[in-house]
C-alpha cells in the first residue's frame, strides 16, 4: 500500500481539470470554507477515478470530510449552498445544492466513517469519525478507493488504485471475501465496472465472486435489476456478461437464463448439428444494440428460449419453432422476478416476440403489412429495427450487407408511410360506445371482432379513419352475418 500524496490531473487551482467552471467554483468555495474551519475535505470515488482515466466526470461532486453532518450542513451554507438535505443520516451523508453562473451543482459530502457488519444482513453498524485512510478502506474496489485533495491537487492512494487503473484491473480493497460479504451487490458492481471501463477482474477477486454468488439472495430484486441495467448499457457489455457467466453469477442473478448460460460452455464438439453458437451470438447482438436499457435487455433475451425450443430433424438441420413467443414469456417472467417496472416488462416482451419479423421484409411487402408491424411494435419501433439490425452476426460480409440493406429498406418504407398518414389515426372509425349505441346492445365479446375488422379496412386503405357512415354500413353487415 502507498498512502503518500502524489500529484494528480489538476487545474491551476488544484481541482480536477475536467470539472468545468461551475463545479470548479463550487469546489473552491467548499475547500475555502472547510479548510478555514479546520476540517478536511477530499474528492473521492468515481469522480477521482474518472479524472485519472480522462473519462467524462459524473454530474455531481462527491466529497469525504472529517466534519460531522451537523457541521457539514453549517459549513455548506457558509459556502453558499441554496439548499441542503440529509441523503442518509445514519451514514453521515449531506447533500448540498448550489447555483452558480445559472448552472445547478449538487454535492454530496460524507463524514469519514467505520463500518461493521455484525451479521448476514446488508446493513452495517456505522461509526462516524476516524481518518481518511479508514474511510477509503471500507470502499469496494481499489479504483474507487482513491482521494484527491481539491485544494492542493494531490492524490491519496493507500490501496494502489492508480496502479490497478494503469493495469486495467478491478481488485477488491483488502480481503475480497470480506468486501463481498459486507455488501453482496458488489459482486454485480464488479462486473458493471468491467462493462463501463473495459477492465478485467483480478484473479483473487474473481475467485471470491465465484465463492460468494449465493449471497446475492440477501439483496433486493429491485437493486439487482438496477445494477444489471447499468451493466447492460456499458460500452464493454459483452465482457461483463462473460464475467457473469464465468463466475456463475449470471444464473444466480437471472436463473431463467440457465439454459442459455449452459451454451457458454458448449463447444462445437458437443453439437451434432449445424447452428451458430447461441451464447457468443447473444453477446455480439447485445454489443451491437444501441446502449438503451430496453434495447439491451431485449438483445440479451431475444434468443433465450432457443435452448428450450431446439429441434433437430433427420437431416441434422436445427429449428427453433416458436422461440420468439416462448422467449417473450421467459422475458416477462425474468423481469417480473427482478421487480422491473411494468413499462419495461411490456416493451421487452414485445421486442422479443417481434424481433424476427423485420428480417423477413422484402420490397414486395404491401403498405398494410408494414403498417401492421409498426402498430404491433408501437413505441418500440426504433428499438425493434435496431435489434433486428444488431441480430445480424454472420461471418460472411455479403450476408451482413444484405441483411443491413433489408432493415434500411423497411425503415424507408415506414418513413414514407408515416409521412403520408399518422399511424395513430389508423383505428376503427367507431369505438365501442358508438357500436353499442348503433345496435342497442350492451358490452360484450361481439364488439372486438367488429372493431378489428374496421381497423383492418382502415389499414388497407379501403375506408378512411373518420368515415363513420361507411363504417356503420359495414358494421351492420358484419353483425347481421354473425
Comma- or semicolon-separated keywords:
Hydrophobic Seed Protein; alpha+beta; 482 residues; 4 domains; Beta Polymerase, domain 2; Hypothetical protein af1432; globular; 12% strand; eight-stranded mixed sheet
CATH topology of the largest domain: Beta Polymerase, domain 2
Report Rg. Answer: 28 Å
* Arithmetic mean of pLDDT: 89
The CATH architecture assignment of the largest domain turns out to be 2-Layer Sandwich
How is the main sheet built? 8 strands, mixed
Give the name of the CATH superfamily of the largest domain.
Beta Polymerase, domain 2
CATH class of the largest domain: Alpha Beta
The proportion of residues forming helix, as a percent range, comes to 40-55%
Could you walk me through the main structural features you see in this protein, from its secondary elements to its overall organization?
The chain has 482 residues and is of the alpha+beta class. The chain has 4 domains: 5-167, 2-Layer Sandwich (Beta Polymerase, domain 2); 175-253, Hydrophobic Seed Protein (Orthogonal Bundle); 267-425, Hypothetical protein af1432 (Orthogonal Bundle); 427-481. It is 50% helix and 12% strand. The strands form 4 sheets. It has an 8-stranded mixed sheet with strand order 1-10-9-2-3-6-5-4. It has a two-stranded antiparallel sheet with strand order 7-8. Strands 11-12 form a two-stranded parallel sheet. Helix 7 (185-197) packs antiparallel against helix 10 (237-247), helix 10 packs antiparallel against helix 13 and helix 14 crosses helix 17.
Amino acid at each position: 500500500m502507498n498512502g503518500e500524496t502524489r500529484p494528480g490531473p489538476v487545474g491551476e487551482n488544484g481541482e480536477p481539470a475536467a470539472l468545468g467552471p461551475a463545479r470548479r467554483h463550487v469546489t473552491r468555495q467548499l475547500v475555502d470554507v472547510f479548510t478555514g474551519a479546520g476540517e478536511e475535505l477530499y474528492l473521492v470515488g468515481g469522480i477521482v477515478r474518472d479524472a485519472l482515466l480522462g473519462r467524462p466526470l459524473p454530474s455531481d461532486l462527491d466529497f469525504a470530510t472529517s466534519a460531522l453532518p451537523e457541521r457539514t450542513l453549517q459549513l455548506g451554507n457558509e459556502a453558499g449552498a441554496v439548499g441542503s438535505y440529509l441523503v442518509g443520516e445514519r451514514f453521515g451523508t449531506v447533500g448540498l445544492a448550489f447555483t452558480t453562473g445559472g448552472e445547478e451543482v449538487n454535492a454530496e459530502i460524507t463524514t469519514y466513517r467505520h463500518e461493521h457488519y455484525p451479521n448476514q444482513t446488508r446493513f452495517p453498524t456505522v461509526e462516524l469519525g476516524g481518518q481518511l485512510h479508514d474511510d477509503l478502506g471500507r470502499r469496494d474496489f481499489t479504483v474507487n478507493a482513491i482521494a484527491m485533495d481539491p485544494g492542493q491537487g494531490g492524490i491519496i492512494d493507500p490501496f494502489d488504485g492508480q496502479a490497478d487503473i494503469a493495469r486495467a484491473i478491478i481488485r477488491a480493497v483488502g480481503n475480497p471475501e470480506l468486501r463481498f460479504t459486507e455488501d453482496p451487490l458488489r459482486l454485480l458492481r464488479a462486473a458493471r465496472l468491467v462493462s463501463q471501463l473495459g477492465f478485467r477482474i483480478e484473479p483473487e477477486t474473481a475467485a471470491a465472486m465465484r465463492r460468494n454468488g449465493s449471497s446475492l439472495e440477501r439483496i433486493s430484486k429491485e437493486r439487482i435489476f438496477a445494477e444489471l441495467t447499468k451493466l447492460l448499457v456499458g460500452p464493454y457489455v459483452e465482457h461483463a456478461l462473460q464475467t457473469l457467466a464465468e463466475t456463475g453469477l449470471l444464473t444466480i442473478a437471472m436463473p431463467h437464463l440457465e439454459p442459455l448460460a449452459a451454451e457458454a460452455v458448449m463447444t462445437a464438439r458437443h453439437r451434432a448439428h449445424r447452428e451458430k453458437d447461441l451464447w457468443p451470438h447473444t453477446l455480439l447482438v447485445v454489443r451491437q444494440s444501441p446502449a438503451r436499457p430496453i434495447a439491451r435487455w431485449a438483445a440479451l433475451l431475444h434468443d433465450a428460449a432457443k435452448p428450450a425450443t431446439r429441434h433437430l430433424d433427420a437431416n441434422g438441420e436445427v429449428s427453433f419453432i416458436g422461440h420468439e413467443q416462448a422467449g417473450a414469456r421467459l422475458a416477462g417472467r425474468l423481469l417480473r422476478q427482478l421487480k422491473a417496472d411494468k413499462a419495461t416488462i411490456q416493451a421487452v416482451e414485445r421486442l422479443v416476440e417481434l424481433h424476427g419479423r423485420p428480417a423477413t421484409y422484402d420490397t414486395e411487402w404491401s403498405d398494410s403489412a408494414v403498417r401492421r408491424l409498426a402498430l404491433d411494435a408501437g413505441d418500440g419501433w426504433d428499438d425493434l429495427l435496431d435489434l433486428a439490425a444488431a441480430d445480424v452476426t454472420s461471418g460472411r460480409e455479403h450476408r451482413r450487407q444484405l441483411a443491413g440493406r433489408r432493415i434500411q429498406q423497411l425503415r424507408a418504407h415506414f418513413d414514407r408511410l408515416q409521412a403520408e398518414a399518422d399511424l395513430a389515426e389508423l383505428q376503427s372509425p367507431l369505438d365501442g360506445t358508438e357500436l353499442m349505441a348503433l345496435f342497442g346492445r350492451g358490452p360484450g365479446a361481439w364488439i372486438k371482432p367488429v372493431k378489428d375488422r374496421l381497423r383492418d379496412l382502415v389499414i388497407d386503405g379501403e375506408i378512411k379513419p373518420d368515415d363513420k357512415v361507411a363504417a356503420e354500413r359495414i358494421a351492420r353487415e358484419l353483425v347481421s352475418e354473425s
